[in-house]
Amino acid sequence: MGIMTRMGNVAWKQLGDSSDFTRCLHSKADVNESRRYICHFPQDNAIWSVGSGYGGNALLGKKCLALRIASALGRKEGWLAEHMLILGIENPQGEKRYIAAAFPSACGKTNLAMLIPPAHLVKKGYKVWTVGDDIAWLRVGADGRLWASNPEAGFFGVVPGTNSRSNPNAVKTIQSNTIYTNVGKLANGDVWWEGHDNLPPEECLDWKGQKWTPDSETKAAHPNSRFTTPARQCPSIAPNWEDPAGVPLDAILFGGRRAHLTPLITESLNWQHGVFMGATMASETTAAQQGGSVGVVRRDPMAMLPFCGYNMGDYFGHWLAMGFKIKNPPKIFLANWFRQNKEGKYLWPGYGDNMRVLLWILDRAAGKGAAVESAIGKLPVKDAMDTSDLNLSPNAMDELMSIDRAAWETEIADIDKFFATFGGHLPAALKTERDALAARIKKT
User: Fold this and answer.
1) Model confidence, pTM
2) Residue tagged active-site, from 64, 107, 204, 234
């Protein structure tokens, strides 16, 4: 709690004599799955958590309060609680602009929050600042812009796959003063996990405390093993990351993992179309996620499906209503770092090179940057993005931006099935956007 929250005197001072706060009860009890209850009561501003020792269920200030309860409060009070990272990009002139981004699990959210730009951009003077890696509270400022703040004080990140290539800033952040849960433990007391910089140890204790070797059929670390570490230890933490006012957003980025459908980056046509993009975003499962089933499409609107504190159809309506309250709204984009060619090879290098996409996004937000309107939104024109030193195949950018009519017709049919689950709660505006997309695709 001390790592993830601002607790103690600062909290008592903020509360003062008020009785307006979220009542939380946590009991690990006997950790029996048949008696496990994680209950949220928005009408009472209360949370009960019984029978779980997992951090997300025991640290009730995290997903339970900062997303589920807060989303219901935001709807009531006119703001948004979102499952989003917040990052700042500083150009060589010292100007900072900010992006909030929502990605489902296994789509590189934490990596993007702590991104290190390519060497040639670092040399030019570009910097990336981490404001938050998981949760953003979004409010309309006096200037008519949408402002984002990070309510958390620490990072609660997935450990497997974290290494100096995937997320060098995270590796530096967790070198000390960090709690590791459900990882492998070495004889000298150090820790190890799949995807670590170091090679597998000859022997260690696995996450269950049992002997493990590289020949074991199980993994040393649980796939959802975690690090809990203070945000202030991150080398890229923004100087203003704890400013209560937050930071003004230039863009909102949604993302997913699609092998062949969505382009590398798409700009929405307007706020309503952007909400439609977020409401229909999806990822295709990997073997690790699905125990062998690959390519199953899972819808996770705004990456909030497990975390919204009220009906998702009404949640879409709240997003649409917010668009009328924001005089100068951020532009909305949809990213897909995971597009593949026919041979199953990734077309885009990802990691730090995603900075190239972010710079085009900020150009578009500033009224610059070249784009062409397509059936699904606005796409970068050829050579609009910096691809220097990438060694992409000759047709890679064309493939990354291509639109397959038959694939999109299948997608629209799947969207119809998803929207049907919301019944009368689905806003008419999203049906309008669906029909408009279908008409544009038909002409493609």
Assistant:
1) 0.95
2) 107
